[in-house]
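hey can u run this one w/ iron/sulfur cluster bound, need the structure tokens asap thx
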Amino acid sequence: MSACGSAGPRASTWLAGPGGSHHEAPRLETKPVDAAVVFRDWDLRPNVDMVLRALGADSGRAGKGSPAAVGLAEEAVTAGQGLLQPAVVAASCAVTGLRHQRLQLEGGGYLAGPLINEHLYGARSVVAAVCTIGPALETEASGWFARDPALSVALDALGSAAVDMLVAALCQRVGDEAVAEGLQTTMPLSPGLTGWPVATGQRQLFALVDASSAGVTLTGSYMMLPRKSASLVIGIGPQVDRGGEPCDYCSMAATCRYRQRRVSDHG
Ligand code: SF4
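ok here u go:
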């Protein structure tokens, strides 16, 4: 059972109503508390460039000068596309108060930590979500590891690219609805970013959404299974701003080849 209202990517339901008094914007519709709903209507089609980027390859150089890498990425796309089983379970929660870096939510849940305080202090509601592409692709990738390790790694990269796409698609939908209501959204905040430790963030997030309804569980070390999953929260309000990019708050930013590619690709 979701602690907050279920949130739908198609219906106008991402925006929970405020319950607190520290915001002045007009009251929005408050959704009923409901069982978590899983949305599976995502059309993910990662392309070869995305797979190459997830592999940490220089897409420009690989795309033109490394036929083997491109061929491998093409093979992964062909073999893996049909194995994507995208699902998002989400809850839209009204903010009822913020005190001592703890964002209190309607229904009794909360989010807390320096990252939460920095980005969500102006939020009137949040969308908490767990996204996954399901277990089929990683099962296939594992199955190829002994016979063709390169293809196995490429399939894994396809999964990473697909999860990235799913998170981006979710953020787009939430953002579009917010804009239609004259509101703004923050960047997606995930457990593990600086200021929101993995264990702390996962406990708080998984208390808000019934991730098991999308087939996602947590290990004792708070890793999600299937591995190709992501958990995140997005703040919504009249005065929140995007606040940068998740990479800006990632402890791996200095050495992450994927980030270096993104920075390079975008100047
Ligand atoms: S820097 Fe961190 S958040 Fe950014 S792509 Fe790398 S691992 Fe992901």
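The longest helix spans residues 149-180. anyway lmk if its weird
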